[in-house]
Design the sequence.
């Protein structure tokens, strides 16, 4: 689990110690700890942060470290609470890139996030709640075709999806929304 407020999660003074903390508490042998740390550093590209002091890291770097520490524990499901909150745009892009890498490595990720337009392109299943009520569940490309749903909830769609909904040439001709520029181009080519 990765908390929304990273300051509540990080206990150690250095990145190296933070990555080892949970693994040591599992009672793993030193060589297994080192193997897992090296693996997560390589996977998430954290080598430049390894010997840094946590208080000197940016918010995005701290978020990466918290995610890396959770991944090193090898959970069946990685749960993230608002991983993009309180981050600047560049850090948000970096965290989305980290999540994309984890997805490619077949990690199951459950995430609570309000910045849907940034995570929709890497999301397989979207569950929408408002005021404790389930409003929708399904593949984002299909679920968000319902204009009323995303407009009612005030969801900012990725620009390619927004363009697809606004283009008269595509009205009623697509069964799923393009979420990336490449998908929009392909959709336009298919529709002719």
Sequence:
């Amino acid at each position: 689990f990765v908390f929304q407020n990273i300051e509540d999660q990080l206990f150690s003074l250095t990145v190296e110690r933070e990555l080892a903390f949970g693994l040591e508490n599992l009672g793993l042998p030193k060589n297994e700890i080192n193997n897992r740390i090296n693996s997560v550093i390589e996977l998430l590209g954290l080598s430049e942060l390894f010997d840094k002091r946590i208080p000197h890291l940016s918010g995005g770097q701290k978020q990466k470290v918290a995610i890396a520490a959770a991944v090193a524990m090898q959970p069946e499901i990685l749960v993230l609470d608002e991983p993009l909150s309180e981050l600047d745009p560049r850090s948000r892009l970096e965290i989305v890139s980290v999540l994309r890498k984890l997805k490619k490595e077949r990690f199951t990720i459950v995430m609570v996030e309000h910045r849907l337009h940034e995570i929709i392109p890497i999301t397989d299943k979207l569950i929408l709640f408002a005021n404790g009520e389930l409003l929708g569940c399904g593949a984002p490309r299909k679920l968000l075709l319902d204009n009323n749903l995303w407009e009612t909830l005030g969801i900012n769609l990725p620009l390619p999806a927004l363009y697809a909904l606004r283009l008269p040439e595509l009205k009623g001709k697509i069964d799923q929304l393009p979420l990336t520029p490449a998908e929009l181009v392909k959709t336009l080519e298919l529709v002719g």
Remarks:
- The two ends are 46 Å apart (CA to CA).
- The beta strands are 77-81, 108-112, 126-130, 133-138.
- DSSP finds nine helices and four strands in the chain.
